[in-house]
Specification:
The chain is an alpha/beta fold. The chain folds into two domains: 271 residues, Type I PLP-dependent aspartate aminotransferase-like (Major domain) (Aspartate Aminotransferase, domain 2, 3-Layer(aba) Sandwich); 115 residues, Aspartate Aminotransferase, domain 1, CATH 3.90.1150.10. Helices cover 38% and strands 17% of the residues. Strands 4-12-11-10-7-5-6 form a seven-stranded mixed sheet, sandwiched between helices. The protein has a four-stranded mixed sheet with strand order 1-2-3-15. A hairpin with a 2-residue loop joins β1 and β2. α8 runs parallel beside α9, α13 packs parallel to α15 and α14 crosses α15. The longest helix has 20 residues. Bound molecules: 4'-deoxy-4'-aminopyridoxal-5'-phosphate. The site of 4'-deoxy-4'-aminopyridoxal-5'-phosphate has 16 residues, from α4. Its cofactor is pyridoxal 5'-phosphate.
Length: 443
């Protein structure tokens, strides 16, 4: 009998007791290869000695002192690292630490609102985001996200956020339309929406550089974010990049937006920041935002008790040092290329695989009932959840999701293996997935 309130109120879940590299081990000694890192969290496996040592060392120094009065060394060193490694154009930004991706998204929205109040533009309060997308489960983050299933029960509680279509190439790009044309058309939806809502009333545009949980690792078409940046600059709208899932090396660069050659005004990050060793998230505000606040009230109008927690920041600092010192971004690129090739070779001509997409060690497969019409499977066939169960029976943890835009898109399987993945582990993941797909599609 479990007294913990799990997502499933009736299931008896195995208890995890330890980690061994990229494997989790349960109380019966069963081993699971973690091919998704929870939800793209565990990017250094589950027993990294340097991260564990850094956390233990910090426990023996100091855990908590209120950030209203004090700072601490790991928080400062990590913030400097994040600012200095942020996409060019961020300038002398500042970092705020929080406990989860959702909290970081809430804080980012409040920061944007503060920025406009400090500028003397109180009419700016409207937020534009994308459909589909996922920005978290607290009310502000849920309202911002475009995940219809997760929003539906709480709709009456959600603030009004306007959604434009995400640049979902597989289903949105028209026949004969080039990538550049599609990128422009998809980005220009933002301009149209700003003009509809009132160009002096829009505060922020929120987007994941690579859509994660709602859609399955959808990168933007080339040129999309350049045009988005231009539109935001033209209308004075802040660009908030949600790098909670895509950030901290997952796509082969520290921030996924680096790949697009632009920088955001506010960036959130979480999962790969602490790699699961500590619960931690961060908001990086660019110099543009910070200088406005410095020239104005000189204060931050937001606060949480555990901001800048020294054990959490010490853990995350060690994670970032391991990624840098062990040159793990190179491994993300190499193992990512291996994963891409293996997925394409296993599934590219499969009659029920509509699309394979991703970047770095962040890949997804979208399954369809019919490749020609792109018709999804009926939700009742539960392809993605059954695949997850089948893979788990094979000792591999994967991340499934089912259509989140009113049944118009289908089942996905998301893979986000650790940055420390070996050649053999990637081979094993794809060979077991090939068998699991064949098995699940039989029924
Ligand atoms: N933003 C994105 C892009 C996410 O993928 C998630 C979590 N899947 C969140 C925000 C919310 O993070 P958390 O679950 O830590 O609150």
């Amino acid at each position: 009998m479990s007294y913990v309130l799990h997502r499933n109120l009736t299931a008896e879940l195995p208890a995890i007791v330890s980690g061994d590299g990229n494997y989790l081990i349960d109380e019966t000694g069963r081993r699971y290869l973690d091919a998704c890192g929870g939800a793209a969290v565990s990017c250094l496996g589950h027993d990294n000695p340097k991260v564990r040592a850094a956390i233990k060392e910090q426990v023996d120094k100091i855990a908590f002192a209120h950030t209203g009065l004090f700072t601490n060394q790991p928080a400062e060193t990590l913030a400097e690292f994040l600012v200095k490694h942020a996409p060019k154009g961020t300038g002398d930004g500042r970092v705020m630490y929080l406990g989860s991706g959702s909290e970081a998204m809430e804080a980012a929205l409040k920061l944007a609102r503060q920025y406009y109040l400090e500028r003397g533009e109180p009419a700016r309060s409207k937020v534009i985001a994308r459909m589909p997308s996922y920005h978290g489960n607290t009310l502000g983050a849920l309202a911002t996200g475009g995940h219809t299933g997760r929003r539906a029960p709480f709709q009456p509680l959600l603030m009004d956020v306007s959604h434009i279509d995400a640049a979902y190439a597989y289903r949105m790009q028209k026949d004969g339309e080039s990538e550049a044309q599609f990128a422009l058309r998809a980005a220009n939806l933002l301009e149209e929406r700003i003009l509809e809502l009132g160009k002096d009333e829009v505060m922020a545009f929120v987007a994941e550089p690579i859509v994660g949980a709602s859609l399955g690792t959808q990168p933007a078409p080339k040129g999309y974010f350049k045009r988005i940046r231009e539109i935001c600059d033209t209308y004075g709208v802040l660009l908030i990049a949600d790098e909670v899932m895509s950030g901290m090396g997952r796509t082969g660069t520290l921030f996924a937006l680096e790949h697009e050659g632009i920088c955001a005004d506010i960036t959130t990050m979480a999962k790969g920041l602490g790699a699961g060793y500590q619960p931690i998230a961060a908001v990086l505000a660019s110099e543009k935002v910070i200088s406005q606040m410095q020239a104005g009230s000189g204060t931050l109008w937001n606060g949480h008790t555990y901001m800048s927690h020294a054990i959490a920041t010490a853990g995350a600092l060690a994670v970032q040092q391991v990624i840098e010192n062990d040159n793990l971004l190179a491994n993300v690129q190499e193992r990512g290329a291996q994963l891409e090739t293996a997925l394409i070779s296993a599934f590219d001509t499969h009659e029920n695989v509509g699309n394979i997409r991703g970047r770095g060690l962040f890949w997804s497969i979208e399954f369809v009932a019919d490749r020609t019409t792109k018709k999804p499977f009926p939700p009742a066939r539960a392809i993605a959840p059954r695949l997850k169960t089948d893979m788990l029976a094979r000792g591999i943890i994967t991340y499934p999701s089912q259509g989140c835009i009113d049944g118009t898109n289908g089942d996905h399987m998301l893979l986000a293996p650790s940055y420390t993945s070996t050649v053999e582990e990637i081979e094993l993941i794809v060979s077991e997935l090939t068998q699991a797909v064949a098995h699940v599609l039989e029924t």
